[in-house]
């Protein structure tokens, strides 16, 4: 099938609703618009490998090279690969079926859990069944934080339970105290000693998704989660409750890692639902409000885990590597299908598609499912320590959900970005032809720092943070067509990078 025919067929298929589509969002409480500053448009907190490094930056501009050639002007080997991968993805649901097994069988995959280790073993076995080369586990020591029992309750002037999730890495403890509500980290500093012995509630709203700029506002909001406990402790607060980092809510709390600062007292920290954060703000405006908080969290000794790795060995330059992957761990709520089970299945399926179609490139494509992205980046650091001296020509990470395919963000020199943008027409049939500057991922960030050309697979993220780190991150939210086309786009980009 020629590429033009594939494009027409792809357009027809994409116009039909997929059996598991979640594009129509239910009514949700929405954050109010607020000034944004300090971070580039669309960027995340995950620009560097910090504790709970999270996600790559998301470019906002639709920047396609003015010199983009027509499809028939590109080398035939790439046109052929695009045609075959586009055709293979249409109607195929294998990635979705694999994700269902992963999610249903193992559930959440928090670092230190048995479910994570069993899931890693399963992915290695699956890559072996797919005929990939040298499927293996490479040992990584990971943090072992355990949530324990949690409860929060308003005890005055009314009595009402609050819906919370302890932030990843929080200390445990029981606290009863008066609530003090602030709207930003800066307000904690400004109010200073006034917050001593209080339970500080950080009620900073995350603005709704900006479709015009592809802006999530996550990077500007997530600081309250990462630094809220430390900033509150510096002024003598007893605990902190942070409004969940999401713009939409159906009373679902969103967890995620915090970052304690050395030399500052560690205080208990949890995320509130948007609804409960607003409740506490209203009550506190009327008068003294008292909350009881109990967190059973504890940190155990480091646990043995591993990165899951396999390869499609290159035919001419096998020692030159293109990495594709996501992170196999997740938070301990939901089943982690969106963050990042889908990304892992994209990488496994991408390699399997290339293998099935006989598209073996000049260089080796290496699948890496990184462990412990969520609360330590130990898998990323261990991979770099073991393989950083090898010749990596590029790396692709998928860790922004499984929405409708959109394209890739590219971190490299202007010349490298322009060189890849020439291939944009190849991705039209998959809906993934937006190739723009700025991208990558937390797990490949050590390679990026070494100067390796780094890409982030960027699907539609307009609903991503509705699910992110919450009990709502479950398999039923995944669209099989979106997942498969993202996998095929990753396969095609990996082939281009490994063949050219």
UniProtKB/TrEMBL annotation:
InterPro entries: CPQ, Peptidase_M28. It is found in: Endoplasmic reticulum; Golgi apparatus; Lysosome; Secreted. Keywords: Carboxypeptidase, Endoplasmic reticulum, Glycoprotein, Golgi apparatus, Hydrolase, Lysosome, Metal-binding, Metalloprotease, Protease, Secreted, Signal, Zinc, Zymogen. Residues 1-17 form the signal peptide. Its main location: endoplasmic reticulum. Homodimer. The monomeric form is inactive while the homodimer is active. This is Carboxypeptidase Q.
